[in-house]
Amino acid sequence: MDFTGPVGGQQGEGTPGRPQEGLPQPPDSSALMQECLQQFRVTGAQLQKIQASLLASMEQALRGQASPAPAVRMLPTYVGSIPHGTEQGDFLVLELGAKGASLRVLWVTLTGINGHRVEPRSQEFVIPQEVMLGAGQQLFDFAAHCLAEFLDGHPVSRQALQLGFSFSFPCHQTGLDRSTLISWTKGFRCSGVEGQDVVQLLRDAIRRQGAHSIDVVAVVNDTVGTMMGCEPGLRPCEVGLVVDTGTNACYMEEARHVAALDNDRGRVCVSVEWGSFGDSGALGPVLTTFDHSLDHESLNPGAQRFEKMIGGLYLGELVRLVLVHLARRGVLFGGRTSPALLSRGSILLEHVAEMEDPSAGVARVHAILQDLGLSPDTSDAELVQLVCAAVCTRAAQLCAAALASVLARLQRSREHQALQVAVATGGQVFEQHPRFCRILRETVMLLAPECDVSFVPSVDGGGRGVAMVTAVAARLASHRRLLEETLAPFRLSHEQLAAVQALMREAMAKGLRGEASSLRMLPTYVRATPDGSERGDFLALDLGGTNFRVLLVRVATGGVQITSQVYSIPECVAQGSGQQLFDHIVDCIVDFQQKQGLSGQSLPLGFTFSFPCRQLGLDQGILLNWTKGFNASGCEGQDVVCLLRGAIRRRQAVELNVVAIVNDTVGTMMSCGYEDPRCEIGLIVGTGTNACYMEELRNVAGVAGDSGHMCINMEWGAFGDDGSLDMLSTCFDASVDQASINPGKQRFEKMISGMYLGEIVRRILLHLTSLGVLFRGQQIQRLQTRDIFKTKFLSEIESDSLALRQVRAILEDLGLPLTSDDALMVLEVCQAVSQRAARLCGAGVAAVAEKMRENRGLEELTVSVGVDGTLYKLHPHFSSLVAATVRELAPRCVVTFLQSEDGSGKGAALVTAVACRLAQKTRV
Ligand code: BG6
Ligand code: GLC
Ligand code: GLC
């Protein structure tokens, strides 16, 4: 470098070796010396200003606000906890960027026992200058070559090699093994790497090299390796500080303060990247002309201004620039320079460190200066020592100011008055410089007196910490594989869904013909949807969903008006005796009538009864079997209308005129049909699932008549009860089925409806826990309880507006203590289960729509589906996934979904109204 002097105006002087006699001797060399050293003095006030400004810059970056001046970056690292010391295994570590022009390969063994260390094996490789400045591919090929050479030369195990990549440059990480280089620092400038994922580049190079199979599991900054490798001690080690060729720190921040993260629970390690701090307001007064010259001549002018005052790559160079200046001013070396002194990079950190080392003595200073082609006298050696001390003292003080701002940040985020923390330190400046750490410590004590800080030198130069992170990453990767394997059977392909659709078509046809089929295809005696001319007041009952309701439905010219009340059906009643159940129902009706002032009136009543019934007419329905957790004795095989009338008789005081019994699918279709005449399909996805649709009467065996339509209650919940869906059934479905009150029954329903999805999820969570994938493998008592995981949690958890933190809160309310990783996995389990349900449901609707299209001989069918049910309505994605699946499987049907707003009770009243209208007509 052709240094032109700190005060300028002497361009062109000082060609290497040129005799210096002509130079004017300074009047007072001691004053010049003082003036020069003075530039490196930083006052306490200046340090405080830097500390404050850096803290402000850190907090601004945490909030995600861009700053106009290049400031600190605050990069989240995906390391979420400090090590617990139980990590174990053998790991390969590759270090690039920490030790300047050299690259290190280590073999680290973690024993899993606190305090028990195995010395790592390591090998260092010098990176040729042309590689540091060449093409990116060349650099990564070089790294892969070093790995191979290391493995060939060391007797280490060759199986399943897992590598941690310590890459010490500013990177945007998007995962533990994904990291995009923002910009090179510290003398590296390889083309084609900035903006690329460095893990991928390394993987590609390893593949090209081909000699070993190595899995790159994690990428970490050197500061993180330093912090993570710190032996667990009395106080938590939550800061990693590196002063190597460059300088930087990381610390554990509260995740909720990091705007760039979706997760705000727990902590995350943030790499400050303070090397880029360059706030001109704060740094301006302490920047010397030597700093400006150094920056100007560097590979990255204008960047990393703070680092260039502290990092080991620059300290020797700063000393050299000062020495050249002083020599030229005649203060040193009798006014002579040498070619070596004038060439960039000739004074290294190790020289500076040695010259300052009191144990090495002045003789060592002489020797070093002589090696530079200089002839120092005794006073020269002492002055040079002063220069070195000035440069390094400033570096340590600036570093202390930066560390003090990290400590202040840590204190603020923890809301602690007094902070006790261990700082892991690493890097060659700490290792080589005799006074750096002491000055740093003393200055930190002055700047952050309220913090009680202990400094802990890093282990194995951070290699152990990298291995720790790699161990964690490897564990997470294997967990992900297990999760994927577990969920794979829930992810249905197009072919599988098309097969379900075809099977359903077949079962529908058989059911309609009265042949053995898992689809009963029950005629409902509803032949027409409402025509709008229905009038009158009706009572309706609605039994079989989440709520039991009694309703008063007024059908008038202006529309339908509904008054209703929800009553509970205690589980003991739902599963007690039939008589008890129907008496309870009548009690509710009587209560409702009294409240509505209807006592004594005998209004026509429509009964939504959402269970499979063989109907012989509108007002006759024989319960075939209970479903959905009902199991009242003495009802199966009985006419439900008779059971209700029996209870009415027993209650004497009331008179009720039961006109129609209606399945909820039919009620929903009728209710939506009142608004849209194209509504010819009814679909329920709630506690249970089922569908009905308008079939050609000629296709319905057992009902007289060949023309017109009849609504068919498919009872598709039972689809697959003949084993036809066994190929899709997972072990979780089998166990939910086995534990239910109707094993072997309602197999399709048990894969789709709200009564079962939460339970499927719970069983998957138990399985994943037993594999150690969730909850650190600890079985949680709450999760052992059946039905603890409600299907409404799926809807809540999968809601897009929720951040992962809310997912965690929901699950924690349930008594499940989980980490962010756990929360993410639970979310994925919920998604897999609900997506399968929605896709299966879509395959069913596609089968129905296609059948209707073919029945009617249409090229294209336009039809609406009236839908109800808590799962369908509350789940954020269910409805759109059903619609998408229908489009995929029935491309010739244009299917619109209408959500029923008023429940099936309104439909039951409308069925009753139609029946009354038709009855009146026949009487007239
Ligand atoms: C409503 C009906 O329309 O939907 C109920 O009124 C029906 O009778 C219900 O069973 C289905 O939803 P869920 O979620 O309550 O089972
Ligand atoms: C540079 C890098 C940073 C690294 C530091 C210490 O500042 O940008 O990532 O931590 O050097 O090696
Ligand atoms: C169950 C019932 C069925 C009802 C469905 C939706 O499958 O058997 O009749 O329609 O649940 O509630």
Automatic annotation (TrEMBL):
InterPro entries: ATPase_NBD, Hexokinase, Hexokinase_BS, Hexokinase_C, Hexokinase_N
Top EC group: transferase
GO terms for cellular component: cytosol; mitochondrion
Keywords assigned by UniProt, alphabetized: Allosteric enzyme, ATP-binding, Glycolysis, Kinase, Nucleotide-binding, Repeat, Transferase
Hexokinase C-terminal domain: residues covered: 239-472, 680-914
Keyword ATP-binding applies: yes
Region feature Disordered, mapped onto this chain: 1-30
Name this protein carries in UniProt: Hexokinase-3
Taxonomic lineage from the root: Eukaryota, Metazoa, Chordata, Craniata, Vertebrata
